[in-house]
Amino acid sequence: PADGHSYTEQGASVWIPDSDAVWVSAQIIQDYKPGHKELLLQLCDRNVRSYVDTLDSSSDLPPLGNPDILEGENDLTALSFLHEPAVLHNLRVRFLDYSSIYTYCGIVLVAINPYEQLPIYGEEVIDAYSGQDMNDMEPHIFSVAENAYRTMGREERNQSIIISGESGSGKTVSAKFTMRFFAVVGGSAQQTSVEEKVLASNPIMESIGNAKTTRNDNSSRFGKYIEIGFGRKGDIIRANMRTYLLEKSRVVFQASAERNYHIFYQLCASRDLPEMRGLKLGENAPEHFRYTNQGGEMQIPGTDDMSDLELTRNSLTVLGVQPVQQMELFRILSAVLHLGNVNIEASGRSSDRSYVNADDRSLAIFSKLLGVEGSQMAHWLCHRRLTVGGEKLVKPMNGQQAVEARDALAKHIYGQLFTWTVHRLNSALRSQRGETRSFIGVLDIYGFETFECNSFEQFCINYANEKLQQQFNRHVFHLEQEEYVREELPWSRIEFSDNQECINLIEGQMGMFDLLDEECRMPKGSDENWARKLYDQHLSSKPHPHFRKPRLSNSAFIVLHFADTVQYECEGFLDKNRDTVFEELINILKASQFRIRVWYNPISQQFLGLRSGLGFSVFSSCFAFQFRQSLQMLMDTLNSTTPHYVRCIKPNDLKEPFIFDPKRTVQQLRACGVLETIRISAAGYPSRWTYEEFFSRYRVLLRGRQSPDNARGSCTHILPELIPDPDQYCFGKTKVFFRSGQVAFLERLRAEKLRVAAVIIQSHVRGWLCRIRYTRIQWAVVTLQRYSRGMLARRLARTLRYTKAALVIQKTYRMVSVRQLFLMIRQLLAERAVLLLQARVRGWMERRSYRRVRTTVVFMQCCVRRKAARKQLLKLKTEARSVEKYRQLNKGMEVKLMQLQIRADQQVIKSFHLNHIIILYVLWFSVDITLTYSGAKKNCVNQAVSQAVAAFQTELDEERRKYQGLLREFTRLEQRYDNLKEMPFLNEALKRTYCLVCCAPSDIRVDVACSLPPGLPAKVLFLCVRHADVSGDQARAQSLCAAAVTAMKTALKKYTKDVEMSALWLKNAWLLHDLLLKHSHKQVHYVPPLTADLTPVTRSLSDLCIQAYQQMLSITGTHLHSITVQALLESETIPGLSAGKLAVSRKRSGSDPRPMGGDAPTMASVLRELGALHAALTHQAVPQTLLEQAFHQLINMMCACALNSVLLRKDLCCWSRGLQIGYNVSLLEEWIRNRNLQAGGAVAPMEPLIQAAKLLQVGKKSDGDARAIVETCTALSSQQIVKILTLYTPHSDLDEKVSVNFIRTIQVLSIIIIKNNQEMFPVSF
User: Fold this and answer.
1) Contacting residues for 713 by C-beta, under 8 A, at least 6 apart
2) Would you give the distance in Å from CA 128 to the centre of its chain?
């Protein structure tokens, strides 16, 4: 059966035609048997319908539907049933349900315009696609660009990316992102000038070459082909731009709801800027100008023309266009607007003349802006010069002819300006950095157009699209199948629609272009005559199948293009093809008092020719002829490169986001041959090598010794071992052919083989080097030993000789010494007695003198001490009498003494009275008893009084001691202050400390700096600042702080790659900032504050802390960014778990993207990097909050990068990989918790990655599983969950893909969320 039908039983899903949805899904409710004339179907709305469509055979059955498991496939060639409804449905599901705008169609990428900005083009996405295979990643424009880049480096052949589609389908945006990808991957770590200029050319060309049409708000009204040249290392060397068919008629006319070129509206929006006031653009522009108000659309929703002009000016500056030259361009553009407002009035009896008022304001402004004579311009706008019989005559023109001359001049000026700008861009995009090895061309040309009124521009645009479609057909269908037949491959030919007949109608002999050029050469040629010639040639004499005549018009014709049937109006074809401008007007412009560079553009002059055959002098060129030549050059360039195709689809005509019109979509799919492309891509072999090339490239995979002479035999022998499936390759006569993805598989095998070989070679070379080194060391050691032994022997002999000589000398010396001693002793014995007497006498005299002096000294000391004691006593008495505080302190004690005295007196009186009473009472007792008793009583009373007095005296003595202690402390502090003022050497010491702290940071060694106690430089510096402030030298304190800040900045710049030094200066900057802040006027309360104003220094230190903090995170973040994906996602920490080996994530080095040698990063590498940072911060005693914040930032970056890769790579979305990822993340989480870093939020960023790993492991079949996923994966958005489920790949035969019905229970219509791995958390100091 056709289209892969294998059964038509009850329950099977089929597609039936529909007038609204084109195709609708239905289900067979009754088995079909051969011979039945109808087929009972149940539609989606439960309605039963009978399908009757001449069911004469099984081939007339409706197309079968694909299984649900294949819905949303990212490559249309993977569908089981390849037909139009299956392709349309799959594109609709991906676009509406998955929000995926890209889909592979064999070798073609289909891109559907979403009509809104999507966050899938950031640098993190470019980094994710860089270095990856197309089959490993989701469809994306970056994947096509990456494939072209890798193919260029591998095969050393030029590449082309051809972006085609209707107007408004998104071609310009796709080309812009393609160039952005090349600028990022083809540049260095920091963008060089060429990459920056390539990106800067886009805003300029959009402003002067794009405009709003009814179908597209940013429609390219010209075509461009940009060649980006690369060097041997894959970096961008130069770029060159070629342009085609600028729509100059838009400068003077715009249809309803359309605009002129963007640059005019940008200038009008910026008319209030000071530098723009001289352009006289008026107050209500652009409504004021005729060239900008015809369409009625002054503003595009969502755009800001003023900010767009600022972007254009910045881009011109990047490309080397100076502000003076920019103002020259703006002056010319403003002059064009004023030229359109020049009022031309008719005169004469029959209105056969015209004139311009001498006081016309627009003409005056135009003449002033361009520096031309206004009267001359007014005259030649209304007159032309004729040459008759060798004489030159001046003939006036009527009003309509003068208006046409004015508009022709405006178009000519704008065209010259456009050409000069392109030439200036190409000059800026050339570089002298090296020789270009190969290039990648990006073609962004106008899409197929059909409007209510189609003219010469649409005819040329659609002709160019016909040529591109032919090139596509020749490459994909014709040349491909011819090569299969030539190589004698088993191949069933696929028929396709060839548009060669339509192209012959336009450019063939006596075709439409030939007839147009012929009519332009006629003196009285007209559009009506050309139309009649078309009818006669292609309808009457030889009817052409692609040419028709409208029923109700004799000045129009219809062409059946590959994409649609278009009716063209003949009016204006001849004038636009002639592109005529009068010579006199051009000469006036060249005579301008300003030297305007646009008029002297050498490129523009190539297309200007003086032609006088019509009786008057004009500048003219046959536009159609030039356009055909430039288009043929483009086709030759494309045919000499390896093409990569991007087909842009316009989903609706309303320009509304994510609305899918099946009629418009299927029309474009049919026109561009997508279905035939799918079939040939699924059945064909897109990759092919000659046997010699294959043998040269993959000979490392061959076993044993192979000869290049027998390359075919070697290939035939080895391929079955490398690729077990024989359907994936085929042997031709001179080439071996491979299906899609097999070359990438062989490249992985080759890279692995070379890596293993490199390791073996390295091991042998290292062993050989070690053996040579050992031999050399052994020879050196033996030589050293030999020389050492000789030296030791000579030293021993010399020692023995010296020893013998020393013994002789010692013997002689001892003899002489003993003899001299003997003579000396004998002489001394005689003198000893005399000396002994003298010593005794002198000793007695000295002792007597000493006693006298001692007595005198003691007496003098007593006198001096007595006098000093008296003075001190008088001083103390005076101080005691004069100090009020002392009196206040002793006042309480005096009161207590008085009370004690009174109490003592009372006790004495009381005792006296008691004694008298007792005496009178005991008179009759004996005197001894009376005396004894009275004495005992008095003793008791006196004893009590004595005890009380003693207690009060003790308290008084204690208070006196406290007061004396305070006096002593005060005296000690005064003495210490005096001592400090008497230390003159302190200034010199501070100077030395100043030099050490402020000059040494950038010169100190790393090991010495790290061995210092944490914060020592900051503390020493603060002491210096404190001393300078106390000494009253505020300027010195401020200069000291400023010098310290400068020195720390210098140290940070010197150690931009050293984490330990960055942490050291972060600690010191933070500590110095904290000390200065604590001792400021606003903070300190217990010590004298700093008098110097150090507020600017504290702000500088705060900025310096942030700089050191960010530098430290940047160093570690850079190291982690290059290994995060491989360590967290690809490393097999649990050995043997993964079903297959992942392609190692890599960056390129030269043409081969695979690394040769070296171990892949693991979790141990990540933990080492984090441990190094943690050790550096802990050694410097950095505050815990800052430590936690730093690791929160790094963990967020790592997890975001890893999650982005999971969302973009389907090889990571499987059960075993989810288990590996979960285990790796648990190791990271355990490391964080062991170091108590979880309090700062370092664990929170890991939650989305943990949940993504769990999502890959849980069940994904029932509704309960869906509810569990939604409840569990709270840190993942619904779009991210849907994306992971869409990319899920079965791990084994027991596993299966996630069904579309399960995904639909979870998903929400939204876009894919790419997590920002560059998010910076705020930190303050």
Assistant:
1) none
2) 12
pTM score, whole prediction: 0.67
Name the one residue in this structure whose structure tokens are 């007061």: 963
**Confidence at residue 964, expressed as pLDDT on a 0 to 100 scale:** 66
CB 1001 within 8 A of CB 1021: no
CA–chain centroid gap for 500, Å, is: 46
- What is the DSSP secondary structure assignment for residue 1268, as one 8-state letter? H
Both ends of the chain: CA-CA distance in Å?
Answer: 76
Does residue 157 sit in helix, strand or coil? coil
CA atoms of 1256 and 1250, how far apart (whole Å): 10
* Helix (H) or strand (E) run with residue 1164 in it: helix 1163-1179
- With 0-12 / 13-18 / 19 or more C-beta atoms within 10 angstroms meaning exposed / middle / buried, residue 786 is exposed
Q: Phi and psi for 645 in degrees, rounded to 5?
A: -105, 140
Contact between 1144 and 1211 (Cβ < 8 Å): no
Is residue 170 a known part of a binding site?
Answer: yes
Decide if 1248 contacts 1276 (C-beta within 8 A).
yes
1293-to-1139, 1296, 1297 alpha-carbon distances in Å: 11, 7, 11
- Report d(CA 1043, CA 112) in Å as an integer: 60
C-alpha closest to that of 743 among 753, 758, 731, 729: 729
Rounded CA-CA distance 1016/1041 in Å is 15
| Number of other residues whose CB lies within 10 A of the CB of residue 788 | 10
**pLDDT for the residue 190:** 42
User: Is 165 assigned to a binding site?
Assistant: yes
How far is the CA of 1120 from the CAs of 688, 1063, 1124, in angstroms? Answer: 39, 18, 6
* The dihedral formed by the CA atoms of 656, 661, 663 and 668, expressed in degrees to the nearest 10: 60
Rounded distance between C-alpha atoms, residue 1267 and residue 369, angstroms: 71
Residue 1136: predicted pLDDT: 55
Q: Is 541 annotated as a binding residue?
A: no
Distant-in-sequence, close-in-space partners of 1252: CB < 8 Å, separation ≥ 6: 1203, 1206, 1218, 1221, 1273, 1276, 1280, 1284
Q: Which residues pair with 51 in a beta bridge?
A: 39
Q: What is the phi/psi pair of residue 588, to 5°?
A: -65, -45
Other beta carbons within 10 Å of 1214: 22
CA 64 – CA 15 distance, rounded (Å): 6
Q: Check whether 1039 is labelled as a binding-site residue.
A: no
Dist CA 1104 CA 1073 (whole Å): 10
What's phi and psi for 116, nearest 5 deg?
Answer: -160, 160
Q: Binding site annotation covers 106?
A: no
- Cβ neighbors of 146 (< 8 A, separation 6 or more) are 129, 130, 131, 132, 134, 181, 185
**Active-site annotation, residues:** 167-168, 172, 216, 219-220, 447, 449
Q: Which two tokens stand for residue 1242?
A: 């370092």
Instruction: Answer for the pair 1198, 1128: CB distance below 8 angstroms, yes or no.
Output: yes
Mean pLDDT by 10 residues, the chain (1325 residues): 46 84 85 70 72 56 78 81 87 91 89 92 90 86 94 90 88 91 72 74 93 88 91 87 90 92 94 90 86 90 92 92 92 94 84 87 93 91 80 86 92 92 90 80 85 88 88 77 81 75 91 90 87 90 89 91 89 85 86 66 41 34 82 91 92 90 88 72 73 83 74 83 85 83 78 90 95 96 95 94 94 92 86 86 91 91 90 80 52 55 63 54 43 49 65 69 62 53 45 49 66 82 83 84 87 86 87 84 61 84 88 89 87 61 43 49 89 89 88 90 88 87 90 87 88 88 84 86 86 74 67 51 57
Angle at 1183 between CA 1177 and CA 1185, to 5 degrees: 105
- Which residues share a beta bridge with 109? 104, 646
Structure tokens at 380: 């030649």
- Tell whether residue 167 is among the known ligand binding residues: yes
Measure the CA angle with vertex 1317, ends 1314 and 1321; round to 5°.
125
